[in-house]
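HUMAN: You are asked to prepare a plain-text protein record giving the amino acid sequence and the backbone structure tokens, both parts labelled.

ASSISTANT:
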Amino acid sequence: MKYLLTVSFVLFALAGSVFAQEKSAADYKNEGNDALRNKDYQKALELYEESVANWEEGEPVEAAMLYNMATCARRIENYDKAIKYYKQTKEQDFRPDIASYYIAYSLNKQDKGEEMESFLVDAVKDFGSSKYVGHMKKMLVTYYLKQGSEPFNEASQILASAQNADPSQYDEINARANEAFAKAKPWFEKVLQYDADNASAKASLQEINSRLAGE
């Protein structure tokens, strides 16, 4: 009997120990918050994801925690997860303007320029009164300038080759340069839609229009 009581006590103690070690979604979330405050973004994200895994079924995950998860993912440059969690944040209408900006930021970091542009154009319309709209427009302008500069520089290099070319080649060289200038033009026009006083875009467009007019 004594032996049986001892075994029962040990089993009960072990069961109690296991039970005591179980953590709730709130426990993981709080530990994640501590890790985030300590800027241990990888650990914080892992703890938040444990919280989600233990979240009560049928209950929406806390929007503020989703936002923190997105921030952690962005900080460790896991842009797929950053986009995923920022989208979930936006779906709950929690800081949707900031979430939209960082979705575009993450797409840009992944070199998904066309997707980033399409997303940002809509975001600028949706959040026109947000203080983040300026950052959104700046991201678009930077993208447009880069896209326009590539064919513009190509055109300039083509024209430079005329210095060592036979005069009989001038017409063909000018035609190729103008083709490249024509490709650059719409990008600089887009810049001015979001930054009407952009000096670089204005100067580039002035030269492009002059070249295409044959001046």
About this structure: The chain has two domains: 21-124, 137-212. Residues 1-20 have pLDDT under 50 and may be disordered. The two ends are 109 Å apart (CA to CA). The CA atoms of residues 136 and 199 lie 19 Å apart.
